[in-house]
Amino acid sequence: DKHNPGEPLHWSRGKSADHADCLARHLLQHGQLDPETGLSHTVAAAWRALALLQTEIEAARKDGG
Predict the structure, then answer these.
(1) Which backbone phi and psi does 33 adopt, to 5 degrees?
(2) Which of 26, 33, 57, 61 is 20 to 30 A from 47, alpha carbon to alpha carbon?
(3) How much is the pTM?
């Protein structure tokens, strides 16, 4: 809902790609609720870590790795 209000759940890759920076910010606030989403910052950190991993895997495949 944060990035795509009213749309089915999906990853809008073009709306936010600074996964490492966001991951660090959410980790610093772990255990607290994110006022924008009402979810734990730990949930956001987990999602950002997986998104970062996915983009790294895709980049490696693109480069022949």
Answers:
(1) -85, 140
(2) 61
(3) 0.82
